[in-house]
Amino acid sequence: MMKFKRWITWCREISRNPTKAVLWKPPIGNIRSLFSRSGKWDPQLSPETRLKIEEHWKPIIQQHDKLQSELTNSLQTADNEKCYVLSMFPYPSGNLHLGHVRVYTISDVMARYHRLQGKMVIHPMGWDAFGLPAENAAMERGIHPKEWTYSNIKRMKQQLEDLSLSFDWNREFATCDPSYYKWTQYLFLKMFEAGLAFQKKGLVNWDPVDKTVLANEQIDGSGCSWRSGAKVEKKYLTQWYLRDTVFSESLLQGLEEVDPELWRDIILVQRNWISEIKGHRIDLKLKYKSQDAKELPLSFYTEHLDLIYGVSHVCVKPTHHLCVEFDMKDIDAVLPIYAVHPLTGQHLKLVVAKEENMFMNRDVMLAIPCISDSDREAAERLNIPYVQVLDDTQNTLINSDELNGLRREQAIEIIRKKTLELGIGGEKISEQLNDWLISRQRYWGTPIPIIHCEKCGTVPVPYDQLPVKLPETDQLINKGGCSPLTEDKNWLEVPCPRCSSPAKRETDTMDTFVDSSWYFLRFIDPHNQQLPFSKEMARKYMPVDLYIGGKEHALLHLYFARFVCHFLHSLGLIEQREPFKNLLTQGMVKGESYKVKKTGKYIPADKVDFTGQCPLEKESGEELIVEFEKMSKSKYNGVNPEDVIAEYGVDSTRLCILSNVSPQSDRDWSNTVFKGVVNWQNRVWSLVTTIRNGNEAMHCSTAQEKLTEEQLQDWEDKIMETRNHILNHVNFHFETTFYINSAISRLHSYVSWLLKVPLPVAHKSKEYEQAVADLIIILAVMAPHFASELWAGLADVAKYKTHPWEKGVLLQRWPQIDDNFLMPLTYLVNHVAISDVGVPFKDFGNLNEEMALAIVKQDGHFSAQFSQYTIEKYSLSVRKFHKASLSLKIPDYHFQTEYDSKSQLKKQMLKLSKQKKKLYTIEQRSDSVRNDSKQT
């Protein structure tokens, strides 16, 4: 009886003030059981309930994701629109950090979004498993790198699965699997055949701790290794290189094919890396005492390929390895070795020259006295003959055989083609960019598939003998710059594939950047036993539609991946030379650190006194510097994702890491953000509670009697338009900007607006039920467990056939904008925004300039103010899924006849822009809701 009286009291209260219903809970007792299990709905969402929801739905969602992946794989030949969402695969360190959680949450959100759009989504995951960290860790622990790596993979895979990430594990591989690096070796051999994989001796960066060669990019500003921290030494070694410089021009041109907004910073970085292309490459063979030298050809950069017949000698820097080997470093010293002119066969002396007279990034240079004072002076000092090949008065070639009489630009093109035909260069390159050094003197990496024979020289391993597997050796310490593989004689010594004479394998392994330069191609065809990938699969799935990863990989990894794709495109193996359509480089997650101001010593949070106005060290009372920095054990500011998830749950953690800041920005991590996230989840929960309580409330309330059909229809229109308005913005961010945080912010406003809708409307409105349902579907891509429970609760009481309620939320279709919803078309006159007019959504996709102008001319404001003027020209700009703008130029129209200054003109234009008419917005709706709530 008492419960019934409390129920009547509650009904009377909401009849007097309906807006309190979402804030004041009916006293019907606490039910701590899940609706999906018990069929009973708890109006209050407790922390325990949130965790129980995830516990219940996690296996269901994992099974759903597995079936979706299997369905995608079974439809490989179907015509479904594809979407390839790829996050940079991780190094298997054994533990996820918050940076991992961030990038994989973003990729999961985008994959689920496109899957709900009905697309065939490829969302793979694998492991970048080779490299120094695993080898060093294994040596420290006395275990094999393979054992260490695979144990870490097992742990990290479980952590990823616990996050309910919708990865297609059927495509999984690790780069240390022979079934994968077989194809890395295959691609290396293709480059070797094309002359792009080669050896040369040079001065390299040597890490004395990790005992391996480092590329320039792996050294910090202090000259120390970015991994070991050791001071890098210089050493002369014969190393393997990939001639990526051949594709310099192609790689620069490719930057014109990507989205300039999404790639803006990366375009700048990569252009700077490649630098201006002003010269060409040309190779010259060497001779020693009239015999072909064992030395590999010297590769030159020259900006004067047309003057090739005017080369008198070759300049070498004192640091060049030949100067060191012959112990001849003095300026003007002539080395006892010759370079052979590629067109005349003339023997060219190698002369030690001053570094300041040569290119900064090159250790050899062609001497051309007719254009260089230093070259002419050196030739005259050393009695080296030279010829004048340039007629300065006519800017034409002389004394140059077939080039005589040609202008310089004509001569360059002829020599370029000739050197390309001879296979000695001719490609356009930059002075700054050097070839990619891939040799590493370590065990845990992809073996280079080359055999060295005394008779045949450098011989590629036959394709049918791939993979060249790593031996199961326990010897991991290298000696004197040689790989540990030199100690395994059974593996090392093999017969030559050509002459069967005793030979030796190449013992250097490849840099791990080689493994990761093409992994996205293997993901599309991971079980192919004949090829790394088929042309058909590449045609169907490439390019990657959205590539997500850290900013730190925006230079090297992206550059190398682009290079490999440009190479494969040149072979006709893939149709596009650019591998990634859209790029999202997410910022790092930073942790709060505490540093003693006087000493700079970092201390953990439990040693900080927070009671005063500023934090102090408990022990000394010293003032602390508090700032957000990259998470590090040494700074005591690391956060274990497992601890966060155990306290707040997966969905709240996902929402927290997606909210407030854009994915591209660094995130300052603080648990205080969870307060807002949890509060929002509670508000969304109350929307479903409102609908579920609708029938009971309407039976006991007289408020619905005051709601006329006209009022209800007015609310239906308002809810419909607001739902479409929000969906328009959410779609825009999901499709174009990838600002998931902005989409969430819109949803926050949306939920606040829906909570203010009068209860009689919420209980009776079809549009309100659809609005809440669409909200839950959108939420499902970000918080799948929470949304699944919300959907179950809503579907149980749904009154209208707006959705297939019998299906789970992850099997719904993404909400669609209504055909007649008016999309905003802004028109501008002489660069001043005048007004917004509406274009029905059904017509928006086909909008062109003529259609837009016709719609604008129908606007009353335009007719009153501009119809009598002649439009000189107009142009349309459309932002897909969002809005459009039409710019009109009317020379005879002036907003004000006279202005005292330019500043007054600017103020007037700004005022006009601010006054432009707007379509309904959610802010206007909020005022309308408040007013109508009072009336109802």
From TrEMBL:
<dbReference type="InterPro" id="IPR014729">
    <property type="entry name" value="Rossmann-like_a/b/a_fold"/>
</dbReference>
<dbReference type="InterPro" id="IPR009080">
    <property type="entry name" value="tRNAsynth_Ia_anticodon-bd"/>
</dbReference>
<dbReference type="InterPro" id="IPR002300">
    <property type="entry name" value="aa-tRNA-synth_Ia"/>
</dbReference>
<dbReference type="GO" id="GO:0032543">
    <property type="term" value="P:mitochondrial translation"/>
</dbReference>
<feature type="domain" description="Aminoacyl-tRNA synthetase class Ia">
    <location>
        <begin position="431"/>
        <end position="593"/>
    </location>
</feature>
<keyword id="KW-0030">Aminoacyl-tRNA synthetase</keyword>
<protein>
    <recommendedName>
        <fullName>leucine--tRNA ligase</fullName>
        <ecNumber>6.1.1.4</ecNumber>
    </recommendedName>
</protein>
<dbReference type="InterPro" id="IPR001412">
    <property type="entry name" value="aa-tRNA-synth_I_CS"/>
</dbReference>
<dbReference type="InterPro" id="IPR002302">
    <property type="entry name" value="Leu-tRNA-ligase"/>
</dbReference>
<dbReference type="InterPro" id="IPR009008">
    <property type="entry name" value="Val/Leu/Ile-tRNA-synth_edit"/>
</dbReference>
<keyword id="KW-0648">Protein biosynthesis</keyword>
<dbReference type="Pfam" id="PF08264">
    <property type="entry name" value="Anticodon_1"/>
</dbReference>
<dbReference type="Pfam" id="PF00133">
    <property type="entry name" value="tRNA-synt_1"/>
</dbReference>
<keyword id="KW-0436">Ligase</keyword>
<dbReference type="InterPro" id="IPR015413">
    <property type="entry name" value="Methionyl/Leucyl_tRNA_Synth"/>
</dbReference>
<dbReference type="Pfam" id="PF09334">
    <property type="entry name" value="tRNA-synt_1g"/>
</dbReference>
<dbReference type="GO" id="GO:0004823">
    <property type="term" value="F:leucine-tRNA ligase activity"/>
</dbReference>
<feature type="domain" description="Aminoacyl-tRNA synthetase class Ia">
    <location>
        <begin position="629"/>
        <end position="668"/>
    </location>
</feature>
<dbReference type="InterPro" id="IPR013155">
    <property type="entry name" value="M/V/L/I-tRNA-synth_anticd-bd"/>
</dbReference>
<keyword id="KW-0547">Nucleotide-binding</keyword>
<keyword id="KW-0067">ATP-binding</keyword>
<dbReference type="GO" id="GO:0002161">
    <property type="term" value="F:aminoacyl-tRNA deacylase activity"/>
</dbReference>
<dbReference type="GO" id="GO:0005524">
    <property type="term" value="F:ATP binding"/>
</dbReference>
<feature type="domain" description="Methionyl/Leucyl tRNA synthetase">
    <location>
        <begin position="84"/>
        <end position="223"/>
    </location>
</feature>
<dbReference type="GO" id="GO:0005739">
    <property type="term" value="C:mitochondrion"/>
</dbReference>
<feature type="domain" description="Methionyl/Valyl/Leucyl/Isoleucyl-tRNA synthetase anticodon-binding">
    <location>
        <begin position="719"/>
        <end position="822"/>
    </location>
</feature>
<dbReference type="GO" id="GO:0006429">
    <property type="term" value="P:leucyl-tRNA aminoacylation"/>
</dbReference>
<comment type="similarity">
    <text>Belongs to the class-I aminoacyl-tRNA synthetase family.</text>
</comment>
